[in-house]
Design brief:
The complex is a heterotrimer of chains A (326), B (308) and C (329).
Chain A: E1 6-17, E2 20-32, E3 37-41, H1 48-56, E4 64-72, E5 75-76, H2 82-88, E6 93-96, H3 110-121, H4 126-139, H5 145-148, H6 158-170, E7 176-180, H7 188-205, E8 208-213, H8 216-222, E9 225-230, E10 233-239, H9 240-245, H10 250-258, E11 307-308, E12 314-315, H11 318-324
Parallel strand pairs in A: 3-8, 3-9, 6-7, 7-8
Antiparallel strand pairs in A: 1-2, 1-4, 4-5, 9-10, 10-12, 11-12
Chain B: H1 2-15, H2 21-26, H3 32-41, H4 48-62, H5 75-110, H6 116-129, H7 132-146, H8 167-200, H9 204-212, H10 216-247, H11 249-255, H12 260-270, H13 273-301
Chain C: E1 14-27, E2 36-49, E3 53-57, H1 64-71, E4 79-84, E5 87-88, H2 94-97, E6 104-107, H3 121-131, H4 136-149, H5 166-178, E7 184-188, H6 196-213, E8 216-221, H7 224-230, E9 233-238, E10 241-247, H8 248-253, H9 258-266, E11 316-318, E12 321-323
Parallel strand pairs in C: 3-8, 3-9, 6-7, 7-8
Antiparallel strand pairs in C: 1-2, 1-4, 4-5, 9-10, 10-12, 11-12
Helix pairs in contact in C: 3-4, 3-5, 4-5
Classes of the chains: A alpha/beta (326), B mainly alpha (308), C alpha/beta (329).
């Protein structure tokens, strides 16, 4: 059986704040195999971004406490020193962020940035690095790459910048690319180009992708696997097709109903999830979704266990234990 | 802008009610005859705009404008002799405070979790709190007075030694003035640079750098500090321009350096309008130049500012 | 082009007639003092019937936000007419516009920037009434009423914006917009900054209020799903012009303009089973500073012919929709 690429076990990230302890990520466990695309879906406060930052060792806050295990290629990343992690970041695991407009130091050219990425992890000469940079820019569809490699980030449009950033991220052939809302700041037609690019590159490089997003459509376009988060916990894990055909968790159902769909008949009212998103400082006891759930009952004052099948798919909801799973 | 400044200075001098320029020039208890002579010599009877044009012409074109106080002493040479002293003082001090500011500011920003940051912070506060004239006098007390015979034997007497006359003399005479003047600015710059860098470390591009696998030291220097230069250049331009224009006056007075600051001070004390006009115009001019240079340097360090 | 609920009985009067509105900006970046002209809006025309919702959709540089600001007269058009209830308000002075501000309201995108953080919610909602001279007691009563109407607690009155979430703040913004019983509300991306589940709540609120108060909306957004849900008619914009306009059904089910088709196709779909190949446009969206000649879409258009780079198409009625395309006749 193929070894899992990334296996997260009981990851917890909490922050000490003046108002109390905030559990941004609470007992998150999941895995992803080679070549898979996993979409992590959630709204604000779900913990989706924080969890992946923790995986990469990017949380620099002194008030943060991170526990659990994160196995990448068999080794626990959380036990590694920052020096060891630096060798992995950018080389084996790469990350792309949301806003291309602020993602690159403005005083250095795109070519310089790509060269820096390459030289941080290999002994490549300046000349060879520049050539590689031009190759990469061409691969991601940037026209006139030999000229643009010497241009500054502000001379690129948002979409082009994101392409260059993706090129840089993939320059060392990482096994895993984590993309945090990579298209949210882009126009729809540009978003389509970027998603198409990611899919194409994934096939070429055979890398796995974790895409963090709030957009169900993006998840559907790109991923084969989905993980839904709410208030720091994983509430559902499934393949994409199962999730959309037959969501198990009431939050997932509510979320999907909230989205006005272009491919369905119009309704006069959207079915909404009542109430406000959970405040991490003031979580309800037991299931955090309890106060907004249309199916909540007495048992929900206890935290429901994540009921999963042999593949790890399932949901954290008492409704499942009652044989409601179809 | 320079023209408006000159007009303003002129008006302040001549149009201030209750002040009779002729009386000022002639001195106390001058009799009517002397006053009339003064008025004639200095065209004080003519309408104000003619006087203004005449003064400007003498100052800039003929360059033979004479002082109101020392009859016959030309203003222009006084200014040109004072400029090298001020420039030497300010350049040297600027070099010192920039180096200190950057070195300590960056170190403090990078060492935030240790004792080094607060220690540097204290140095910064001390620098900002010591008034130049007090510090200067204390320095003089020690180097010229108490310990002059022993530890500070090599310190020359107060005053400026032109470089052309003796390079080593020039250096030694300026050493303590440099240190004194730079302490205040070093304090300011240490604090500004440190807080600027700390703020910049929260930017998105820093996150990208960490994701690339760059180490904290590299990020601090090649990215955060490099970006902080934008603010530093702006601040430095203002400070440098003002100092060269004559703001180093207190330092010059304390150390007996015959620079522009000191000249301005003397001119003001004596109500010597031509000299005041010359020094003020010189100062304004330098500030304009300094701003223009700052704009150029901006374009050099921040590609976003360049045109096309 | 019938609306889908019982508003139809009330909808009969034309409330807004926009004719050939343009907005040209001059920038100083032309070098040697020359000014660059940027055409943010170019000859936009449409009508609006009372009680309906016009959704305006498009990407960066299309001018939809400018259009919203121009119609609500937060900005002045360079040319064209904006006839609101029979009066041309395009060139009215600020003073002349004042009484009309009761009837035409604007809602911004960012709920975090739209509310003064130093004032209480009650004071914020009362402000428009205070400006127009409503008495203190009446103001308070109405503010309380509105806060309840938008789904907020009665004791929100004393609270400050920072005590509320984004969605709640947007409700406050809506309450404020309603204080003087407006007729026309122009909303610029009012739900874009909100989480999906909250977005749905606020959209429902918009609809309820419209039914109750017979409001007319111009709803500017980039999210095709949101626009489809809330609108009766849709205008699709590209680089300052309307390229297609029609009822929601027509636009979404039977788009005519190649840009509309590409836009709908680019929208990430939840349902992947209908495997129609996505049409991905190449290249960047041109900058309004550098508009392509002829039809401004021709540089990215999959069906462009040589004529398209020289002839600028007019917006004309073709079948059930208005389209501006040289090839749709």
């Amino acid at each position: 059986m193929a070894e899992k690429l990334l296996e997260v076990k009981n990851l917890c990230v909490s922050f000490k704040t003046r108002k109390g302890i905030v559990r941004a990520v609470n007992n998150l466990s999941f895995s992803i195999n080679h070549g898979e695309v996993l979409g992590i879906v959630g709204e604000s406060g779900s913990g989706k971004s924080v969890s992946m930052s923790a995986v990469m060792g990017l949380i620099k806050d002194e008030n943060a406490e991170i526990t659990g295990e994160v196995f990448f290629n068999g080794e626990d990343l959380l036990k590694k020193s920052d020096e060891e992690l630096r060798a992995i970041r950018g080389k084996d695991i790469a990350m792309v962020f949301q806003d291309p407009m602020t993602a690159l130091t403005p005083v250095y050219t795109i070519g310089w940035h790509i060269r820096e990425q390459l030289q941080l992890h290999s002994d490549i000469s300046d000349k060879a690095a520049r050539e590689r940079a031009i190759e990469l820019l061409e691969e991601v569809g940037i026209p006139d790459p030999a000229k643009r490699v010497d241009q500054y980030p502000h001379e690129f449009s948002g979409g082009m910048r994101q392409r260059a950033i993706i090129a840089m991220a993939l320059s060392l052939n990482p096994k895993l690319l984590i993309a945090d809302e990579p298209t949210t700041a882009l126009d729809v037609t540009i978003q389509a180009q970027i998603l198409d690019l990611l899919e194409r590159l994934r096939k070429t490089y055979n890398s796995s992708i974790i895409i963090i997003t709030h957009d169900m459509g993006v998840v559907s376009e790109l991923s084969s696997e989905v993980l839904v988060m709410y208030a720091g916990r994983m509430v559902e894990r499934s393949t994409k097709s199962s999730l959309f055909a037959n969501p198990q968790h009431p939050y997932t159902k509510g979320l999907m109903n909230s989205v006005p769909r272009v491919d369905r008949a119009r309704t006069s009212r959207l079915e909404t999830i009542s109430g406000q998103p959970a405040s991490l400082l003031n979580l309800p006891s037991g299931c955090a979704f309890r106060t907004r759930c249309p199916s909540a009952h007495v048992a929900c004052t206890e935290q429901p266990a994540f009921i999963s099948d042999s593949n790890g798919y399932g949901a954290a909801c008492f409704l499942l234990t009652q044989g409601a799973r179809s | 802008m320079l023209v408006s400044i000159s007009i303003l200075v002129f008006l302040i001098f001549f149009a201030t009610p209750g002040v009779d320029p002729a009386a000022r020039i002639a001195g106390r208890n001058a009799d009517q005859l002397t006053l009339q002579q003064v008025r004639a010599t200095f065209d004080l009877d003519k309408p104000i705009h003619i006087r203004y044009v005449s003064m400007m012409k003498h100052l800039f074109i003929d360059r033979d404008l004479t002082s109101y106080v020392n009859r016959g002493a030309e203003v222009w040479p006084q200014l040109t002799q004072a400029i090298p002293a001020t420039l030497s003082l300010v350049f040297g001090a600027a070099l010192i405070w920039l180096v200190l500011g950057l070195a300590l500011g960056i170190t403090a920003a990078g060492a935030r979790k240790s004792w080094i940051d607060p220690a540097i912070g204290i140095i910064g506060i001390v620098g900002v709190s010591l008034p130049v004239y007090w510090l200067g006098e204390v320095v003089n007390l020690i180097t010229q007075g108490r310990l002059h015979a022993t530890l500070f034997r090599w310190v020359p007497p107060l005053g400026y030694v032109p470089f052309t006359q003796s390079p080593s003399g020039w250096f030694l005479a300026l050493l303590f003035p440099w240190l004194t003047l730079s302490i205040l600015y070093a304090g300011i710059y240490i604090r500004v640079i440190r807080s600027e860098i700390v703020g910049l470390m929260q930017e998105d591009y820093i996150k990208t750098e960490r994701a690339k696998g760059a180490g904290e030291k590299r990020i601090l220097i090649k990215h955060a500090s490099r970006m902080s230069l934008i603010t530093v250049v702006s601040l430095f331009g203002l400070d440098f321009g003002a100092l060269v224009g004559g703001s180093a006056l207190l330092t010059e007075v304390v150390f007996g350096i015959q620079g522009v600051g000191r000249l301005t001070f003397t001119a003001l004390q004596n109500f010597d309008l031509p000299l005041i006009m010359a020094t003020v115009m010189y100062a304004a001019f330098f500030i304009v130049i300094a701003n223009a240079i700052v704009d150029l340097v901006y374009a050099w360090i921040d590609p976003r500012v360049r045109r096309g | 082009m019938l609306p889908i609920n019982a508003r139809s009985a009330l909808m009969s009067d034309e409330i807004l007639k926009v004719t050939n509105v343009s907005r040209v900006y001059e920038t100083s970046g032309g070098g040697f003092g020359r000014k660059n002209k940027v055409s943010a809006l170019d000859g936009v025309s449409f009508n609006l019937v009372q009680g309906e919702t016009l959704g305006v959709v498009g990407e960066s540089g299309c001018g939809k936000s400018t259009l919203g600001r121009i119609i609500s007269r937060l900005d002045t058009p360079t040319s064209g007419e904006i006839i609101y209830k029979g009066n041309d308000i395009a060139k009215k002075s600020l003073a002349a516009m004042r009484p009309l501000r009761k009837e035409i309201q604007f809602i911004f995108q960012d709920p975090y920037a739209s509310l003064n953080p130093r004032r209480q919610i009650g004071a914020i909602v009362e402000e428009p009434m205070r400006i127009h001279g409503v008495s203190k007691d009446e103001r308070r009563a109405r503010a309380q009423e509105l806060l309840e109407k938008v789904g907020l607690d009665k004791n929100s009155y004393e609270k400050y914006p920072h005590e509320f979430s984004g969605g709640q703040r947007q409700r406050v913004v809506i309450a404020r917009a309603l204080t003087l019983k407006p007729e026309l509300i122009i909303a610029d991306e009012p739900v874009s900054a909100l989480d999906v589940s909250i977005q749905a709540q606020v959209l429902n609120l918009f609809k309820e209020l419209q039914d109750e108060m017979n409001l007319t909306y111009i709803f500017v957004a980039h999210d095709l799903g949101v626009v489809r849900h809330i609108s009766d008619r849709i205008a699709v914009m590209y680089l300052g012009k309307i390229v297609e306009m029609g009822s929601v059904e027509e636009i979404y089910n039977n788009p005519q303009h190649p840009y509309t088709k590409a836009l709908l196709s680019a929208n990430p779909r939840i349902d992947q089973s209908a495997k129609s190949t996505r049409q991905i446009l190449t290249g960047d969206i041109p900058s309004p500073l550098n508009r392509p000649s002829g039809c401004s879409f021709h540089t990215r258009c999959p069906i462009a012919v040589p004529e398209c780079s020289t002839r600028e198409p007019e917006l004309r009625r073709v079948g059930a929709v208005d389209v501006a395309c040289n090839l749709v006749l």
